[in-house]
Amino acid sequence: MINTTQPILIRGARIVDPSQGWDRAGDLLIGDGRIVRMAPAIRNGSLPKGCVVVNGAGLVACPGFIDLHVHLREPGYEDHETISTGVQAAARGGFTTLCAMPNTRPAMDNASVVDYVLRRAREANGVRVLPIGCVTKARAGQELAEMWELAQAGAIGFSDDGSPVANPHLMRQALTYARGLDLPVINHPEDPALSRSAPMNEGRISNRLGLAGWPAVAEETMVARDIELAALTGGRLHLAHISTAGSVELVRRAKERGLPVTAEATPHHLTLTEEWVRGHTTEGPVAGPLTYAAYDTSTKVNPPLRTRRDAEALLAGLRDGVIDAIATDHAPHAVTVKLVTFDEAASGIPGLETAFGALMTLTHKGDLPLITLVERMTQGPLKVLGGRGRGLGSLREGSVADVTLLRLDEEWVVRGAEFASKGKQTPLEGVTLKGRVAATIAGGRVVHSQVTGLEASDNT
Ligand SMILES: [Zn+2]
After folding, report:
1. All domains of the chain in start order, with CATH
2. How many A from CA of 1 to the centre of ligand 1?
3. pTM as predicted
4. b/e per residue 107-131 (b: at least 16 CB within 10 A)
């Protein structure tokens, strides 16, 4: 890892910074790991010595993306992902900050595992990793983890993600303690007694495929429970990957009541539907009789892909701010746990490298303004991070130099085999996306670049 960061001027890019309501052409100067200046034009005479000047024509410059929800798998599942491969995937996807879920082995339920993850992240490429501690010991749902110890070690919140905190009394206690620590409890809203580990959404297609169904109500009853517990305790509740129209409505009402509730949605729930499980090509889901394209395990994810109506409700919620943040739920798996039957396959989609391209398809269709999309990937997540995200997510002078450069019109074909992530099974395999991350600068270091004249820092 190189320690020095060179001054860089990005000249004449379209600068999109939701933190300042800025969307227009300008110059951006960074140095010493900070944003030095953002202005309509910065004169050559005022540049620091050795400054790299990048031609920003055709590029959008925005704050680096913040992902509240990734599974880096290390320690314990290094065959699925490592912190090193995970942060490389993040860099390619334009993410400069990742919040790492604690369903590792051992689980992140004590300070020494948090320390380990932070140390491994420092040895990686410069993308920031913020650990999320467990709510319960070993994520077993029986007794609370040492939340204070986890917070002292650097946990930015608490979650048993992968599993819900099923016991409402424990959830109440967790929210009460988290309130004292001013950290969020991030629950995976699923009532396991209702979802019964079913592999796909309950409905017409699960019937047709002969698969058990995971009903929307199994999410919505848990969302409703959690909202009432947040109201009771005053603890901050963040709802992970909400996927149904009913959940959006519940969060909307919670916000109208002024409750400390935030929510995220994933790119796959916003852009794909249960139709994809029935079979898809690179053009999208196939209609007509069942073919061998059905039961594609790359579409298996928890919560499952839902209906078109749900995806539209999520998009509306994202647009009007009921959903605060886009989070990838990047959940990479080794191929061995995906090349099995649909029932047996592991749930999860590797999302870091395709998130922006997939979401840009919505933006190109006019369904989501670019500045709103960027807000939900920067300022939105910061609402959840609170003070732990100070200095991030903005191009304001003095902020941390996390900058992502985008090419909105670049078309590219998704090839899982080319991912930096070890998770190669994506439902978007072979799909052409329009919109690509051109470069990523994390803390002033270039961690990914396809831009002429901007070299990625040596990672060794
Ligand atoms: Zn989850």
Report:
1. 8-61+400-449 (2.30.40.10), 64-389 (3.20.20.140)
2. 32
3. 0.97
4. bbbbbebbebbbebbeebbbbbbbb
